[in-house]
Write a structure and sequence with these properties.
This protein has helices at 2-14, 21-33, 38-100. The chain is mostly helical.
Length: 110
């Protein structure tokens, strides 16, 4: 009875077999060729795409920064010109009113 408990372990221990050296060397050769496949191509392509996207992003960011700077300068100039034009118009109206001898209290801007 005691021997019947050990018998399945004996069958299990004999099931583990090492293959011959020639078979193991072929497996190792196939393992070395696997490294140059589609995975490296995919990684290389991913790196190329990321580098391209990064350079495009930096270019767009720089262009946007330059465009925004130009817009702010132009809008400042336009606003300054509008204020100057308005002041000139007020001065012209005051001069005309003064020449005509008319007093307009709402023209006391400045």
């Amino acid at each position: 009875m005691k021997f019947s408990h050990v018998l399945p372990l004996a069958a299990l221990s004999t099931a583990f077999v090492l293959p011959p050296e020639e078979v193991l060397s072929e497996i190792a050769i196939e393992d070395h060729h696997r490294g140059n496949g589609w995975y490296q191509d995919a990684v290389r392509t991913k790196d190329d795409v990321l580098a391209s996207v990064k350079s495009q992003y930096e270019e767009v960011a720089e262009t946007s920064k330059d465009a925004w700077k130009q817009i702010t300068e132009t809008s400042r100039n336009a606003l300054d010109e509008a204020v100057e034009y308005g002041n000139e118009a007020v001065d012209a109206v005051k001069d005309k009113a003064h020449q005509a001898g008319v007093y307009w209290p709402f023209i006391t801007l400045h």
